[in-house]
Amino acid sequence: MAIASINEFVIKFANVNGSGSASANELFAKAILRMGVPVSPRNIFPSNIQGLPTWYEVRVSEQGWLGRRGGIDMMVAMNPQTWDTDIAEIEPGGYLFYDATRHVPAEKLRPDIEVIGMPLTEISNANYADPRQRQLFKNIIYVGALSHLLGVDESVFEKLFSEQYKGKELLLQSNMKALRMGRDWMAQNHRSAFGLQVKAADRVGERIFTDGNSAAALGCVYGGATVAAWYPITPSSSVAEAFQKYCEKFRVEDDSGRHRYAIVQAEDELASIGIVVGAGWNGARAFTTTSGPGISLMTEFIGLAYFAEIPVTIINVQRGGPSTGMPTRTQQADLLSCAWASHGDTKHVLLLPQDPNECFSFSAQALDLADRLQTPIFVMTDLDIGMNQRLCEPFAWDDAQTYDRGKVMSAEELEAGRDFGRYKDVDGDGIPWRTLPGTHPSKGSYFTRGTTRDPYARYSERGPDYIYNMERLMRKFQTAADLVPQPILRQASGPTEWGVLYFGSTAPAMEEAFEQMAQLGLHFNGLRLRAYPFSQMVKDFIDRHDKVLVVEQNRDAQMRTLLIHEFDLNPARVLPVLHYDGTPITARFISTAIQGHLAVFDSNPERDHSAKETT
Asked: Which is more confidently placed, 460 or 611?
């Protein structure tokens, strides 16, 4: 039976990279969004410039689910290279739309899906002479055909084109012409009702549609960053590019035209982190943006910033590793390399945003935390959040907010004779006072070094001085647990002895998986982690449950490792749910994996709870 659904389905576009399809596919997603129906698109692209397969998956969900569901209801198959695997992904009763200019033999199709062929290349070649125009407008033609099939209003596209090509009337007209070609052909050749439909709704509300990299860049502007140094690397480059765009808008003096920022594209990652460490030492709010391979190169400077206690913010847009790995695929696989970056005993603060809204707020907060804690702060986003557009709550900012510069001793305090020990803990929180260069002509100076020293920054190889410093750094890390974003509890709708810990880009799929399992009578309490170090709330959550599942997107259960290490947990109580093929995790995968764990223990969370109460 054919799938029939209104405002709840998944369409996947299979294209060739460099064909201009991404813009057309994004147009399709935005049109549905403009009809008031939430969408969650994901661009799955190769690491070359042109020629390899690329996919664009659009989740349409009036219910508001923003994670990947798993399974495809309709495949738009435009790439012969991936035909067989693309067709295999379609759900039974689903739909296939393809370019029928060339005959496709029956054995290449499936009897349990509805097939819609349209001679796209033939239509495009008949209307356009230029080869590039033929390809680009073919994309718009198939968007037009799909819009007619699904019932998406033509006026929505006209408005989108008007906004995109404002002042460029010829481009507006040519794109509308191609769109209508597709709509007209489908109206004439496919008269039967189509099972997937889009109906106008009002489920988007005030939410905005943006990507995490742009949001993080804007957060750095609002957070007071004036220096950025970076080296290009997928998928983080657009953070620096967006920061430059926002600085040109918000950080240029109207009267003088003076730029109140400095952005350096350095010769490599080593140079970029070195620039940022130097700027932070000098009192500027500075950040770099990179991905896993860049972190590997930066670790010696990160260790220096940790030990010399210099504020640094690092935005890590994670991708598949190790080595070059999968540059255009997503993972959460840099947790350990960042939490313990550098040689020796180090522990670094990690912030774990779930969407662009938190990319904005956490990036701004990271700059505050770096100053207050005088240490590197990592914002751990990933490709799924960073490079895909996502619906999220509007960004919020209090204009009355002041930056938290932490313990910075003033010239007046130094002049009054206040004791200044650069690495001295004066109040038990592990955070020393610092001075900025030029604060006072003769007082408050100190030698910045990566070697051991006493509380007054004097070189020392004495064991007690080293131990004092290392234990103070540990106290500072413990202080950070109360300053970082706190976890968010999701209470189960029924009694349970099982809990689930999750974080970052796993959150949207996890929220849907909770609902899927609840419909099966399987209830779990959930706690979304938002930072490391972990607060006491995390330990309390684990202690309240017989078993705790940790859902993450890496092979080695890195978050589970951190939890076991920090809280000295029995590993048998902490069960991994791991997804690491480079694609964003799906609700179906999570539900299936968790039910697999339940089967191993012959367990039902609600039944286990009832039995425990009876006992």
From this structure: 460
